[in-house]
Amino acid sequence: MAKRRLWADLALLSVAFIWGIAFVVQRLAAAEVQAYVFNGVRFWLGAIAILPLAIYNARAQRPPARLLPGKYLPGVALAGLLLASGAAFQQIGIQFTTASNAGFITGLYVVLIPIFLAFGGRGRLPRAAVWVAALLSAFGLFLLSTGGQFQFNWGDLLVMVSAVFWAFHMILIDWLVQRVEVMQLAIGQYIVCGLVSLGLGLYLQPDAFLPVLSHWPLLAFMGIISVGLGYTLQAVGQRVAPPADTAIILSLEAVFAALGGWLFLGERLAPLQLLGCGVILLGMLLAQSESILRRPALSAVKSPR
Questions:
Q1: Residue 103: left (phi > 0), alpha (psi -120 to 50), or beta?
Q2: What is the pLDDT of residue 107?
């Protein structure tokens, strides 16, 4: 069990690094490729990348399993819709903000999850620590987005909306991953997300597919590495890792995003913005403090993403 947990933690650490660096790639692509087309292509590439593994996994079972789940197909489809919504708001928002900001703001789903669970009837009312975490995160968001000035960045607000969808997506994934094979879940939600995103892209901007070929390296990274590898490792790690591990490890996504923005995009954060990053990280960990301190065997949500 200890060895399985170690591998799960390493998988989640890999996910945090991949997704953190992915904010840099998304920032570069946002200026060149329309958001819906970008998301549609990358999630379809992700589905294609893991298709051979999914087929092998289905055939290796006795009796052989379906490539897509039957009974839980509506839940998988809903996961794909939530994924498409979160990805759309995030990709549109990142056009107007930095990779660093987007990484830290996206991480606010850690705070939103216990609040949504409580008011959705899947848990008791949030503890005082969760409300304090929410206030800290809101204050940190204010410092990061505005630098202390009363003027919010439009892109930051859109990324904040995406964090709401990521929270709902994570709650649903936590439920599905205990009932559906990881490969079935991954393939199903990628296909739905890709269809919805490409459909919107074709309807809103039919000529938006032209820049895709000239920016294939960015799309290849996002499709094969960020989607195909990242989201699949997330599901694998989430099945084993306890909530204390996932709360800490996946919070590092925001740190890797800031590091990537600094190394590859030359992004710099003012002192007040750095303070905001620290306050947001503190809020993330405080929201999961009960899991971290008590280390329960089971939890309603095992991962903030």
A1: alpha
A2: 82
Contact by Cβ (8 Å): 76, 180: yes
pLDDT recorded at residue 302: 35
DSSP conformation class of 150: S
Torsion of CA 15, 58, 221, 36, to 10 degrees: -100
Length of the chain: 305
Which residue in the block uniquely carries the two structure tokens 């991953």?
177
Q: Which SS3 state, helix, strand or coil, does residue 272 take?
A: helix
Q: Which residues of 69-90 are buried (b: 16+ CB within 10 A; e: fewer)?
A: beebeebbbbbbbbbbbbbbbb
| Domains of the chain, residue spans | 2-294
pLDDT tens digits along 231-260: 778 878 877 876 656 767 777 888 888 889
User: Which CA distances in Å does 247 have to 13, 76, 80, 254, 293?
Assistant: 11, 24, 23, 12, 12
Q: Within the chain, how many helices (H) and strands (E) appear? A: 14, 0
CA-based torsion, 36, 41, 46, 50: positive or negative: positive
Mean pLDDT of 134-153: 77
Longest Cα–Cα distance of the chain, Å, equals: 62
**What six digits make up the tokens of 56?**
């092998």
User: Would you state the structure tokens that stand for residue 82, as one six-digit string?
Assistant: 């939530």
Question: Which residues contact residue 110 at a Cβ distance below 8 angstroms, ignoring those fewer than 6 apart?
Answer: 247, 250, 251, 283, 284, 287, 288, 304
CB 215 within 8 Å of CB 206:
no
